[in-house]
Design goal:
Low-confidence stretches: none
Structural class: mainly alpha
């Protein structure tokens, strides 16, 4: 029974790692909750409160960086709020309408359209679209690397 629970937790953590690049899965929070659940299950002997505090801090950091990277990327390239909202909507639309390429095209197209609606300037809209995508993917890369670190540290502690 212990092995089945451990395997289930590892599967959830791997799904969390995938969730760092798939927008509909809450990647890092899922990893943290899975580690917490395993710690609870095993009585916090292997998964210590100190380890959980570190994983919790990394989770909060990842969520903040993930949000800020998109906003900062968009702002750095001159995007307005409509451009940022367009990128967010474009990400979800792209994911469902053109998978897997939609994850690349959707945010750029959404940000460009949102920015064009705001300023009616095609060059500025394209620049804002590129900035939003740069920020979005910078955040994704950061959270993906962080999720791998969390997975590997869990595996090292448990095994």
């Amino acid at each position: 029974m212990e092995n089945i629970f451990l395997i289930s937790v590892i599967i959830l953590i791997v799904i969390g790692v995938a969730g760092t690049v798939v927008p509909l899965i809450p990647g890092i929070p899922l990893i943290f909750v899975s580690i917490l659940a395993y710690g609870w299950h095993e009585g916090f002997n292997v998964i210590t409160p100190k380890y959980l505090a570190i994983m919790g801090a990394l989770t909060v950091l990842a969520v903040i960086i993930d949000y800020l990277s998109t906003v900062l990327g968009a702002k750095y390239f001159g995007s307005s709020k409509k451009g940022v909202w367009g990128a967010l909507l474009g990400t979800f639309a792209g994911l469902f309408l053109f998978p897997p390429l939609g994850i690349l095209i959707g945010p750029w197209l959404g940000a460009s359209i949102g920015e064009y609606i705001d300023c009616n300037n095609l060059n500025k809209a394209m620049k804002a679209g590129v900035g939003t995508v740069v920020g979005l993917f910078s955040g994704m890369i950061f959270t993906f690397i962080l999720s791998l670190i969390m997975l590997i540290s869990f595996l090292i502690i448990v095994f």
